[in-house]
Design a protein that fits this description.
It contains 4 helices and no strands. By secondary structure, the protein is mainly α. 0% of the residues are buried.
Length: 162
């Protein structure tokens, strides 16, 4: 309104009060016509703006649909991840069992090898012990060949199982 007042004062100062009156009246008629036209167009403009905004903005139904789609996608991914986790778990279990079986087989082989070596050492020790007994018997035989107890021990040594 202040701009209108300044404009009419400027026209009056240039043309004078009497000559400015028809110009100001014409200006008032134009402004009134514009205001009337604007009031007539207001509902149409409002509807057009609302229509444009509804095209640009998401409605509650649109948001609900997106929410439903997101939930479905999250559930799908969750199921897929659970399946992948179970697959990896099963593969790991299989791998662990395979390693366990390999380690058990390796341990059994080591045990068998150690048993064989221990048995070999026992056989060698028995053999060495017999040789020692034979040497002792020979020594005793030559030192006490007339002694009946030593003769009996010698017979026992000779009859020992191999």
């Amino acid at each position: 309104m202040q701009a209108y007042f300044k404009a009419t004062k400027a026209i009056e100062s240039i043309l004078g009060h009497e000559q400015a009156r028809p110009v100001i009246d014409a200006l008032n008629i134009g402004i009134s016509a514009f205001e009337n036209k604007f009031e007539e167009q207001r509902p149409i403009l409002k509807a057009e703006i609302k229509d444009e905004m509804s095209k640009e903005l998401a409605s509650k139904a649109d948001l609900a649909l997106v929410k439903t789609e997101l939930k479905a996608e999250i559930n799908r991914v969750e199921i897929e991840l659970k399946s992948d986790i179970e697959t990896v778990r099963a593969e790991l279990k299989t791998d662990i069992e395979k390693v366990r079986a390999e380690l058990k087989a390796d341990l059994d082989n080591v045990r068998a090898g150690l048993k064989a070596e221990v048995n070999q050492l026992r056989s060698e020790m028995k053999y060495n012990f017999r040789i020692i007994w034979i040497f002792m018997a020979i020594i005793l035989f030559f030192s006490a060949s007339a002694n009946p107890i030593f003769q009996h021990l010698l017979k026992m040594l000779m009859n020992m199982p191999k």
